[in-house]
Amino acid sequence: MRILVVSQYFWPETFRVNEIVSELTARGHEVTVLTGRPNYPEGVLHPDFAADPSRFSRYAGADVLRVPLRPRGQGSLKLVLNYWSFVFWGCLKGPWLLRGRGFDAIFVFETSPITSALPAILLKWIKRAPLSMWVLDLWPDTLQAVGMVKTERQLKAVGLLCRFIYRRCDLILGQSRAFIEPIRRWAGSSERFRYFPQWSEEVFDANAAPAAPAPAPAPEVTALGPGFNIIFAGNIGDAQDFPSLLRAAELTRDREDIRWVIVGDGRAAPQVRADIERLGLSRNIVMLGRHPVERMPAFFAAADALLVSLKAEPIFAMTIPGKVQSYLAAGKPLLGMLDGEGARVIEESGAGLVAPSGDAQALARQARALADLSAETRARMGDSGRRYGATHFKRAALMTQLEGWLANPLAT
Fold first, then answer.
1. What pLDDT, on a 0 to 100 scale, did the predictor assign at position 152?
2. Rounded distance, CA 203 to CA 50, Å?
3. What's residue 137's pLDDT?
């Protein structure tokens, strides 16, 4: 097949769309990527790309075509301009960059913003190719949950945009089964919806093998000394509810063995650092900054538990955070503060302990309980999670499923 992938985010940014492209090219398909200039998550143009853009025009055998894109920067206004700049340049320049190329399928990778699908809709009309979209962030619900949409009028306006987009897709893939009803509300039907979950990134493949030796623990963590390390890895944003995480750390202040370690960065990181200092939690919580995904197995190896959290909002109860699959592959116990689908996976897999979203006291209790378990019991939890992930979130099987859908979007 000749496949066009449309995504605002792409390599050297780290998203699962990178693995979709590499997997499809490895299976013999001719893949072209239409994307923007890399600036996530720092909000400024990736320095290696700025130095030599030509180095980033091919990825795993796929052509990578990039349109101008205003960097995210800091602040809501700049973020909105970032979103719409991809729409503008994708619609204006995308057809020109893709002139003379025919496609059998168009695939949209939709983590926020959903507006990134608009250039793909135009290209669907120009290229006469079926359009499939993988929904990882559910608009307008996510915008309402994080406070970017505050009034009913704004919510309705974004909903009408979602309706326009969904109704022009031949196939809508959702990362959670709970997405069916919200998407049906705007799409008018659930007949074109298929469940397509995330998987652990390729870098964790070695960890997923039951007999695989564990990677060496990250020295940034081992240098902190002995203790029970609860590691959070990933985006530091509003959705992750860091005020509740910091409150849980306060409630375990008396346990000198429990250490909360944050590996990552995001828009809320400066506020989190300031709050740690203000609350006097520098001994209990350590922020290690952002590191490449290739180093995550080493950080996970240094963990006694891996932490995932989401705010207490209905939309987040429908979501399975992508880090859950990677945590499961690492074979470590999970500690969750989340509701709904994410909590279900942790409990169903037997991989760890869960507290309700926003309940800092319950999270502190579960952290204490996990620290007090024997190492053997925690190892069994990790093994159970690894087996569950290999059964339910196996990348090769999911890619075969996607391959079939792209060939025939209307297949059941």
1. 80
2. 26
3. 86
Looking only at the bridges linking them, the beta strands covering 58-59 and 30-35 are unpaired
Q: Whole-angstrom distance between the N-terminal and C-terminal Cα of the chain?
A: 20
Report the pLDDT value the prediction gives residue 300, as an integer from 0 to 100: 96
pLDDT at residue 238 tops 80: yes
Examine the domain organization and report whether 120 and 176 are in the same domain: yes
Q: Which residues pair with 134 in a beta bridge?
A: 109, 173
Q: In whole angstroms, what is the distance from residue 398 CA to residue 39 CA?
A: 29
Mean pLDDT of 60-78: 90
Helices (H) and strands (E) in the chain, counts: 18, 14
3-state helix, strand, coil in the chain (%, to 5): 50, 15, 35
Could you tell me the pLDDT band of residue 412, with boundaries at 50, 70 and 90? low
Q: How confident is the model at residue 20 (pLDDT cuts 50, 70, 90)?
A: very high
Examine residue 144 and state whether it is found in any structural domain, yes or no. yes
Domain CATH for 229 = 3.40.50.2000
Nearest to 164 by CA among 76, 82, 87: 87
d(CA 188, CA 175): 19
- With respect to residue 302, please indicate whether it lies within any of the assigned structural domains: yes
